[in-house]
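Run log, item B.
One chain of 122 residues. Sequence copied directly from the ordering sheet:
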Amino acid sequence: MDNAVVLNLEQMILRVPHLEIEKRTMLENKKKELQNLLSTSVGHCESGDIAENERLLNDIKTSINLLENEHSQALNAISRINVNDYGYCEYCGVDIALKRLNYLPFAPHCVDCQDYLERKRV
């Protein structure tokens, strides 16, 4: 395996515990922000306040989903390493290009299969 890929893998593995901390910190900050908005809008909620609260809630949900997705992908890559399946496409089984793994160390699919799967979802 390419040294750069190994380095990226090590960085990814080290990042997994930090994802949980980042998620918790982000949630605490967003909770405080939401509590501040709610405490200042009690009794005089205007349509702009409601729209702002909905936007904030959507931002929180998006941030949580992104962090959970990255965390899940990192854990999946680690499990593939443990069973010697890392670097092979989960869909077709071919080697994932080193260039792709350098860019996205937890990539589960080769570029062709990823493109196919994304088009299939649409």
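Observations after the first pass:
- The mean pLDDT is 78.
- The first helix runs from residue 3 to 41.
Flagged for discussion on Thursday.
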